[in-house]
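Notes, p. 3: input format for complexes.
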Amino acid sequence: MIDAVRELLKAHLKQLRLPAMVQELEALSREAAATDQDYEHLLLRLTEVELAARASNALQSRIKLADFPVSKDFDTYDFTAMPSLSKPRLLELARCEWIDNKNNCCFIGSPGTGKTHLAVSLGSAACRSGYRVRFFTAATLVGQLEKAQKQYTLDRFLGQLDKADLLICDELGYLSFSRGGAELLFQVFSDRYERSSLLITSNLSFGDWGQVFQGERMTAALLDRFTHRCEIFEMNGESYRFRESMKAKKGRKSG
Ligand code: ADP
Ligand code: MG
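Output follows (255 residues plus magnesium ion):
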C-alpha cells in the first residue's frame, strides 16, 4: 500500500472510531500481501479485530462498574470442601438463565465458607455474558443510600441501581441499620421484585433477618418477595480460611 494512502486510510478509520483497525492495519495488510489474501478477507480480519477489541473493552467496563471487592472464579473454588453444595447446580447458574428470568439467589451460612467467593464468581459470569452487575456489601449500600438521601440525589442513585440486571448485596446481617437505613434497603430490594435479580449473602438464617430489617412486618414482606423465586444455598461448616491456616501450621510443625 502506498504510504500516503495508508496514512489517509488510518485517518479515516480514526475518524470512524475504529482504533483496533488502525492499530492492526499494517500487520494485517502485510500478512494479506504475503499470503495472497483478497481484499474481502483482509477487510474481514480487520473487522474481526475491531469487534474483539470492543467486546473486551465492554467486558472490562462491566467488571469495573460491578466493583467486585476481589477477583474470584469457580475454578479456584474447592467444591470438595463444601460437599453439601451442588457444583452442577451452581455451574448451571453461571449460565445466567436465572438473571434472564429475574430470579434471585442467596448464600446463607457461617463465615469463611466461600459466600463472597461464589457471589463474585456468579457476578463475573454475568459480566462475561453481557449483564450489568453492581456489587455492594449491605453496609456500604445502606451508607450510600443514606448519603444520597441527605444530598437529595436518592432518585438518581436508585435509577443507577435499577439499571443493573444483577444487584449483589454481600454480608447482610453483620451490621444492623438505623430504621431509615433499613427502610431504604427494603425499598431497593422490593423494587427489584420480578423486575431484576438480587443476590444476597448472609450469616443469618431467614428467621433472623428481622434483626436487620427491624419489625416483623417489613421482614415478612421482604422475605415473601425475595424467596418467591430464589435459588437458596446453605453453606454451613468450618471456615475454609481457618482450615487452611490450621493445615499450614501443622505442615510447619511436622516439617
Ligand atoms: P465468606 O464470604 O463466606 O465469609 P469468603 O468467600 O470470603 O467467605 O472466603 C474466605 C476465603 O476463603 C476467600 O479467600 C475464599 O476464596 C476462600 N475460600 C472459601 N471457601 C473456599 C473453597 N471451598 N475453595 C477455595 N477457596 C475458598
Ligand atoms: Mg464474605
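The pocket of magnesium ion (ligand 2) is lined by residues 115-116, 170-171 (CB under 6 Å).
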